Amino acid sequence: MPRRPANEQARETRRNALLDAAMRVWLEHPERITSVAEVAQAAGVAKGTIYLYFASKENMLLAAHERHAEAFFAALNARADQPETMTFDDMIALTQHHIVENPVFLPLATLVGGLLHKGVTPEAATEFEGRMAQRLRLAGEKLCRHFPFGHADTGARLLMQSYGLILGLWQLLGSPAPPCTDAEVAALLHPDYAGELDIALRALWRGTLDHKENIDA
């Protein structure tokens, strides 16, 4: 019978190795949900070992997505903790590095969004949302040290709105554009994702901060 490693560090190492294997397999076949058997084979373990850590393949994919999100928030908090004033360009750089340039983040986030209230177990979905809410609140508090939000909730909501833009624009523009001979149509319907994201995020943040200043005036 498969057993979990005895100590917490070893368990975390094994869990990360399983998630790494899951991502390798999923990247080979992103059009479908990776099976537990495929991950077990890629990781060199028995199927029973997977179930010691994840109740289902959907829970495993959710855990992989959360690991990406956790890395982004860790980097964001570390930058916000520095004494130098944080700028929007810093936010763009963090977003580009941890979300846009990560080849797995946005495709997996799209898949997980459909699984969260369908394939993922209710307990895992509830715990995931609770942890994400905590991360958003903490990040919102830290961003208040650098941006004139006035309240941590404003920063948290702005991060959520930013994520909606990032993911929504990627779903619209992230796939390769079909051949188009009309240059004007191509420029309008299939612009560069990174460039459009920069414009949209700047507009969102500028609008939020301007609105806050007008209310306080």
Primary descriptors:
217 residues; mainly alpha; 73% helix; 0% strand
Task: Tell me what the structure shows.
- The protein is an all-alpha fold.
- It has helices spanning 8-28, 36-43, 47-53, 57-80, 88-100, 105-115, 122-143, 152-173, 183-189, 193-216.
- Helix 1 (8-28) packs across helix 4 (57-80) and helix 4 (57-80) crosses helix 6.
- The chain starts with 7 loop residues before the first helix and ends with a helix.
- The mean pLDDT is 88.
Beta-strand segment tally: 0
Strand content: under 5%
| Structural category | mainly alpha
Number of helices: 10
Any low-confidence stretches, pLDDT <50, length ≥5?
none
- End-to-end Cα distance: 67 Å
**Shape call:** globular
Task: Say what oligomer this is.
Answer: single chain
Q: What is the arithmetic mean of pLDDT?
A: 88
- Largest β sheet strand count, sense and barrel closure: none
- SSE order, as H and E? HHHHHHHHHH
Helix content: over 70%
Radius of gyration: 20 Å
Helix-strand layout with pairing:
Blueprint (H helix, E strand, L loop, with lengths): L7 H21 L7 H8 L3 H7 L3 H24 L7 H13 L4 H11 L6 H22 L8 H22 L9 H7 L3 H24 L1
Helix pairs in contact: 1-2, 1-4, 4-5, 4-6, 4-7, 5-10, 7-8, 8-10
